[in-house]
Structure formats: structure tokens, C-alpha cells
Structure prediction request, 402 residues.
Amino acid sequence: MMLRHLLKLIWKRKSRNMMLSLEILLAFVVVFAISAFALRSWQLYQMPTGFGYQDVWSVGLNARTEGGIEADPLIYDKLRQSLKALPEVEEVSFTSFPVYQSSNWTSEFTLRDGKRKFVSNLFEMSDEFPAVAGMTLAEGRWFSRADDGGAEHPVVINRRLAQELFDGKPALGQVFSENEDRPKKALRQFKVVGIVEEFRSQGEFMSPTGFTLVRHKTGADEGSLDAIQLKVRKGTPRTFEAALNRQLKLVRNDWSYTISPLADMRTSMLKAQTIPLTILAVIAAFLLVMVAFGLFGVLWQNTTQRIPEIGLRRAIGADSGHIYSQIIVEQMLLSSGAIFVALLLLVQLPLTGVLGDSLNWPVFLMATALSAGVIYLLSLLCSLYPGWRAARLSPTQALHYE
Prediction:
């Protein structure tokens, strides 16, 4: 009965409460958006990247000579032999670009039947990279020198791409080709020889996507691999960079090299990727403070305008506790109504899938709970003092208030 009475009171003052409810609705949407972004980032951070970074160093190659590395295919062997001569180096591998950088390479392919085209991220690498990065296979095998001379290029794909393309059917042994404007005979053919659970070259905050790991054929006129990934002995100091640079200069003195431990590159990448979240958090905090001031002012004004009504309730026997709880419960009901309307709009996003995995159901539900908690806490704090002030009024003071 008490709840029904409060709802009637809120409805009678609907025009006055409309602006307050709208303010709460907008605050909830802002908090929800930032909460969802933060929770999705946390969700991504918990997912495996598919490779390790401990005791791995990266060397970016900047070939200043015309044609670059591909102009001299033997350069890979020269670099490998020279670097493995260093006592700190355990293994040497080459990749199309360094991991933990904002580099991206995508291409379009066609399945063997020619009925389906798809786009995949590519990462080209030498045979040694899985061992350097501590990668593990879920199915199949890694490519190796046993694949030399084959008509089809061996590739390893991640689980997401395998499910997208083959929908539960065995992916191993499947063949697809490049989708380019060239004669069919000139298009490269790729054969799936292995599957990894995940691979995200840009690190922990990269959204999961389909990846194709391609074996590089040295001297096959397929472009160059512009990064070296080194597995070094545990505890190798940062001063190793000077010795590594000298060894590289012995091979090609006319090239420049960007050397960094993968752990440092990861730290820099994570800092760069968390900047947007930090900025959004500052904006959200500022907006919430502004909303709190506005909410407090409106509640103060509403309470002041209702002093004669409060005096009448006190005169007919209502104690201060009932007045206090009425002010707080009314505010909570207003907040609940605004949150409900906001959720009716926001729930369309995961239902329609317009934001894809960025707003999946776990993120939506956690963001809803967090945002509702923030708004309820804000409403409670803003209603405490006006409610306390109203409860302190004596019936005589309230009835004679002008």
C-alpha cells in the first residue's frame, strides 16, 4: 500500500519529476557506456594472446637499400647464423612485422569451391617463430622444411577462423586461394595444416579476429619479413642491446635496427591502449559530479516546495523516520524508472548485434549491474540531506512555512 501511495505521489508531480528522471537516464547511459568499455577491455585482457613475450627480443629491420631484404634472399641465413653466434641468443625467427605493434595486414581469400569469399588477418613467419614465442597447437602440425617444394602453402589458422569458415567440419586439409585480379594459375593456394586456439598480434586488448599464420618461403618472390624475433637466455640484461646492434651491423652496416625486449613493447602497447579508457574515466567522473550537483539541487528544491505537505503529514501523526524514508524511497523509485527506460533502449544493442562482440551479453549484464549500482548510490547520497532536513521540521514550522 505504501508503495502504491508513493507511486501516486510521483505521478501527480510527473511534470516536475520529468527533468529529474531525464537527468538520471542520461547519467545512467554515460556510466553504462564507460562501464561496458572498461569491462570489455578487462574481458579482452583475460583472453590468451596465443604467444609469449618473456625472454623474447624484437628487432625491426629498416632496409635502406633498393628492394630491401627480398633483393637478397640469403640475408636471412646470414642474419640467423650471425645472431645465433651470440651466447645470449637461443633461437632466431623472422616475421612480417613485430608483435605488440599497431601493424595490421589483411587479405581476401576464396574457398576451393569458389562459392565463399572471406577476409582474414595475415601474419607471415619463419619456421622457428612458434618455438621462439612459445606457441602451442590445438590440432595438426606446424609447417617446416618438409613443406618445401609443395604446390600449396602450409598455413595455421586460429579456432575462430576455422569455425567461421567450416562450421564444425574438419578444417585440417582444407584448401583456399588468394582472391585477386590475377590469372587463376598465378594465385597462391593455401592448405590448412594446423589450428591454434587464439592469436592476437597486437596483444591483450586486440579484439579477437580470424588469423592466418603463413609460412614464408625464402627467395620465393613473396616479399620480405621485416622483423626478427629472438629467444634469449633468461635474465639477459638490457645492455645486451649494444652487443646485438654491433652484431647486426656486421651483417648489413647500411641498415638501421630498432631493438627492444618484447616485454617493454608490451608495456608500451598496453599504456597506449589504456589512454582512451583513462580519458573516458575522467570525463565520466566530471559528468557524475555535475549530475550529483544537479540532482542535489533539484531534490532540495522539491523538498522545499513540499514542506506544507510534510507539515500536514507530521500533524496527522507521521514521525520523522517515515518522512525521511519517504524522500529516499521516492528518489529510488524515480531512479528505477529512469534506469528501466534506459535499459529498454540499450538492450537493443546486444539483441541486434550491432556492436558485435564488443557488447556481448556478459559485458552487457555486468555493465548494467555496475551502472545501476552507481546511479542508486548517487541517488541515495543526494537524497540523504534533503530527507534529513525535511524530517527535522516540526509540524508547526512546516504548516506556517511560506
About this structure: The radius of gyration is 32 Å. The longest helix spans residues 262-305. The CA atoms of residues 57 and 261 lie 4 Å apart. The longest strand covers residues 117-125.
